[in-house]
């Protein structure tokens, strides 16, 4: 995309809390503009646009259809409940809108395939909104993991993603809802009066998505051969997962574990162990500071005499960042969209592949949970 090309015009489907952060990112990115927002309530969409920096010329719609039918919208960001992704993402793709899709991207890989096929058949760029993947720190950490002299061969990974949800969240948030009655049946074509599973994967889909992505990232996206839930998850009264853990294993004996929860103090850790080095980061999902991110590495260390210390000591690394990670995300997405729109480039297929692998692992862990903690083979 040429530097003087017009900015990519974003439409947003829905007014979820995370959409506020992405709206800010679209405003801050040099190659994007907020062009439209749609909600089932025109009043809600109007208030969202007014409070989140939408320019005066932005379109406001009282429906999701209004955004995807708008011929001037280049791309849509979809932060809707997971159960609605397959419907609205496919409809958006059929209207030739490039797709930035909030995670978890689908309830299962079958639904994700429908989304990816719609994007591919229409020549559209797809990307999931896993923001930490686009932070400059992530690139530097990956360089360390790829260094055979400093890190060696991967042996194990452990990832966590947890936070203590408020009582209000645990009672009302869509991520803990399952069954019941809701007007969403009008949008989804479900059985009259019965609400579909909005985000029925619970913590596994929400916080667990980050853990699985971190593990795949550290293993250079090599799919594990199997997944095993480590213990019976914690459920709420509706049967939605509030906390769970799992292990993953590979043919070459690499291993990984993760823990995700809505009931545990904030934790966003990755520990990656190699034959020659290790990496640790304590805030990989959301850095403690927006413009400064840290990680620790250790290479070729051993005990000093009498085993009273290390030599050499671990190194603390600081990455300074002028733009928030979500700005880097929308900027890169828009660059790919612009290359298609203005230069007749092909969509970048890395992001669909990574999303699919993440979903495959999530599905396998869920199956292991449902099957009494039995190992589940992961087939690519």
TrEMBL record:
- Every GFO/IDH/MocA-like oxidoreductase domain range: 196-280
InterPro entries hit by this protein: Gfo/Idh/MocA-like_OxRdtase_N (IPR000683), GFO_IDH_MocA-like_dom (IPR055170), NAD(P)-bd_dom_sf (IPR036291)
Task: Please report the stretch or stretches of sequence annotated as the Gfo/Idh/MocA-like oxidoreductase N-terminal domain.
Answer: 8-127
**Top-level taxon of the source organism:** Eukaryota
Residue ranges the record marks as coiled coil: none
The GO terms this record gives for MF are: nucleotide binding
What's a Pfam family in this record? GFO_IDH_MocA
Family as reported in the entry's similarity comment = Belongs to the Gfo/Idh/MocA family.
Which protein, by its recorded name, is this?
Uncharacterized protein
**Provenance organism:** Arachis hypogaea (Peanut)
